[in-house]
């Protein structure tokens, strides 16, 4: 099969690799029908995630069709159309039993495209299928559904819920890329008093306004001054960091009010300075997190009921074989206006795999 392979920092290639096969009783092999690219993939390619070694197939988000299932799989069967979660969960370790699937110690967590081959391929093996794939309702389009593999649960759990967004709050979202825009949508579910979006790209700020941001600050403006003006100098109740660079995180800590919350979503490849000389007396809560995806069934229900505007985040569509072109467009978002790019692969009728023992 063909797959997008990491070959070292700055190097990827769409190339031939062996077909995946079922290795354990709880595995499934899935034909990838729709896949997308995440900002985390760009961090991987830059070398920010050293656990990803050359030869790894990238990607952790997809919708596909089950073609083979291990003997222990109970919730899906061949022919089912499913959402592949970015997080795999063994279901047995302490963290899984508490719903913290992202911290799984039984062989799961963020493994796809990280420590095992991922979804940016024609086929993918997914471990722990009963907790790691979700049957898709017939009413959910695959291109919309793939956005619930990562960005929506990540923005909702790590941003909105960790940040404790409440009715009437002033919420600032720093970074209006796909995750930040999903955080704006998620925050809007809690009736905040206002949502302020901060980004360098005007196209992304326009998208933020269309999805619920009440005010925006761009490259030519001072976000901190805007927040002060709108809050009479108090600061924001919740600030969500959705960029992953030190300057963005440090900006967030300057804009939060005493007693407020900073929820970091961004993947950081460099150290950020925590200015405790300014923050120690302000009762600030700072949260970090890797998504657990416990909210995915609820979000799927909202999507099926047409309560989640996921399709508005999709700006570019490609065939699966155009993976390298899609990466180029996604990585140059400031020039291309890309938010979320999705790729639909060719349909296959069979996969060669060894018979089950």
From TrEMBL:
Keyword Aminoacyl-tRNA synthetase attributed: no
GO molecular function, one term: oxidoreductase activity
Cofactor(s) the record lists: Zn(2+)
Keywords, in A-Z order: Metal-binding, Oxidoreductase, Zinc
Domain Enoyl reductase (ER): 8-343
Pfam families, A to Z: ADH_N, ADH_zinc_N
Protein family (similarity comment): Belongs to the zinc-containing alcohol dehydrogenase family.
Name the record gives this protein: Alcohol dehydrogenase
Gene source species: Streptomyces atratus
């Amino acid at each position: 099969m063909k797959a997008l392979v990491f070959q070292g920092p700055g190097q990827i290639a769409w190339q031939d690799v062996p077909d995946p096969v079922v290795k354990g009783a709880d595995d499934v092999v899935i034909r990838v029908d729709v896949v997308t690219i995440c900002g985390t993939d760009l961090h991987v390619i830059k070398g920010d995630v050293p656990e990803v070694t050359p030869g790894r197939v990238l990607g952790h988000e997809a919708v596909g069709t089950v073609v083979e299932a291990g003997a222990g799989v109970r919730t899906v069967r061949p022919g089912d159309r499913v959402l592949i979660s970015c997080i795999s969960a063994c279901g047995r370790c302490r963290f899984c039993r508490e719903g913290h699937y992202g911290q799984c110690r039984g062989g799961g967590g963020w493994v796809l495209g990280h420590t095992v081959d991922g979804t940016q391929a024609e086929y993918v093996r997914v471990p722990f299928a009963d907790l790691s794939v979700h049957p898709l309702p017939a009413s959910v389009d695959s291109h919309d559904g793939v956005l619930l593999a990562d960005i929506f649960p990540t923005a909702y759990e790590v941003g909105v819920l960790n940040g404790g967004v409440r009715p009437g709050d002033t919420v600032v979202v720093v970074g209006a890329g796909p995750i930040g825009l999903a955080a704006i949508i998620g925050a809007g579910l809690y009736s905040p008093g206002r949502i302020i979006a901060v980004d360098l790209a005007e196209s992304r700020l326009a998208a933020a306004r269309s999805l619920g941001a009440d005010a925006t600050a761009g490259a030519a403006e001072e976000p901190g001054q805007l927040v002060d003006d709108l809050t009479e100098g108090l600061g924001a109740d919740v600030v969500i960091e959705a960029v992953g660079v030190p300057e963005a995180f440090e900006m967030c800590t300057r804009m939060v009010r005493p007693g407020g919350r900073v929820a970091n979503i961004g993947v950081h490849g460099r150290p950020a300075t925590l200015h405790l000389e300014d923050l120690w007396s302000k009762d600030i809560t700072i949260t970090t997190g890797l998504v657990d995806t416990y909210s995915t069934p609820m979000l799927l229900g909202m999507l099926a009921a047409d309560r989640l505007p996921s399709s508005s985040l999709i700006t570019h569509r490609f065939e699966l074989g155009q993976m390298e072109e899609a990466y180029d467009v996604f990585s140059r978002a400031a020039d291309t206006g890309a938010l979320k790019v999705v790729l639909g692969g060719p349909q296959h009728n069979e996969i060669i795999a060894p018979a089950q023992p």
